Amino acid sequence: MIRTLALRARVAEPLQQAATGFSLQSAPAVAKRVAATHLVMSRWGLEHMSHDLQGREEIPDKVKGEIRGRIAEANAALSKSLPAVELLPSEHAFLHSDLNATPVEELAKMAGRWESFGVLTWSLGMQPKIPAYYNTFDMQGALQSTGIVPANVKTIEDFLARSHVVRPEAELAAALNSAEAWYWRARAQVLLSLKEALEDPSCDSSDANKIPRAVRDMAKKIDVSIMYAASRSLEDGLISEAVGDDFGIPSRVEGADDSAPAWKRYADGTPEEWAGMRLIAENRMAAFGWLMAGREWDISRDEIAFVNHMSSIWQPENAN
């Protein structure tokens, strides 16, 4: 486990870019990316339905066959709309592949693209707000906000012909700052877990010594960094709740007693909650990187960097 955490911790090291200011995408460019991503995620939905169907033993084979037929028909109709959008090579390969050819593991990774898609629709004013970083965008709401029907080319053409307007730069910058704070916290959790593993009495010292000293030093101090980041983020309005010395996340589960605390520390989350929040943060961050810094849309999620010269929570207070 130590080696795995150390590898992830390298991804959690601060990443900076030299450029200053924003390189905003134009409204037509954002609309084109929305249209393409709409078709990609629609195909993702068909793939997800098809894979899910395979494991449903309670459904008779005859019914399964009928459902597969409808999925195939929907995919064929969607395919006829592909010439209307501008696809990246990876998107072209996915959309032109056979149904069920994409491994379940890849589909799971692609699920985060809903968050990227949501950021784009929000940037064009089609979504009223970006959900908190422990909640996902509503898939159907994001799709319906565009008015695009994948099987109807005219709806795509009509969408692209609209006079779209990107939200004001000040709104984008405020949302970016919040995204960077949550993305930093998601990566910091890797270092915090590494710190706890290194301090465990059962930790193998030979494994610990294989971790770069810089990473070990960062892990030792990460709890102090989180304390400062939580205080600064709350003060700047980047997070809505802080619990103790950490970012606050919901703690109540459905059916819990009303007297149960409504919030808990990010550090007290479950591995599943951490994974979910990281997926949300990194995919929204990737979208902001494309939208505001001209980064690649399909950038590897291990290579995502902050758009600001440094994460907004570490900027001098007079820099905002």
Task: Provide a descriptive summary of the structure in words.
With 320 residues, the protein is mainly α. It is 56% helix and 3% strand. It has a 3-stranded antiparallel β-sheet. The longest helix is centred in the middle third of the chain and has 31 residues. About 3% of the residues have low confidence.
Pick out its properties.
mainly alpha; three-stranded antiparallel sheet; 3% strand; 12 helices; 320 residues
- The overall pLDDT, averaged over residues, is 88
Q: What shape does the CA trace take?
A: globular
Number of strands: 3
Q: What is the helix content?
A: 55-70%
Largest sheet: 3 strands, antiparallel
The string of secondary-structure elements, in order, is HHHHHHHHHHHEEEH
- Spans of at least 5 consecutive residues with low confidence: 10-20
Q: What portion of residues belong to β-strands?
A: under 5%
How are the strands of the biggest sheet laid out side by side? 1-2-3
Rg, rounded, reads 22 Å
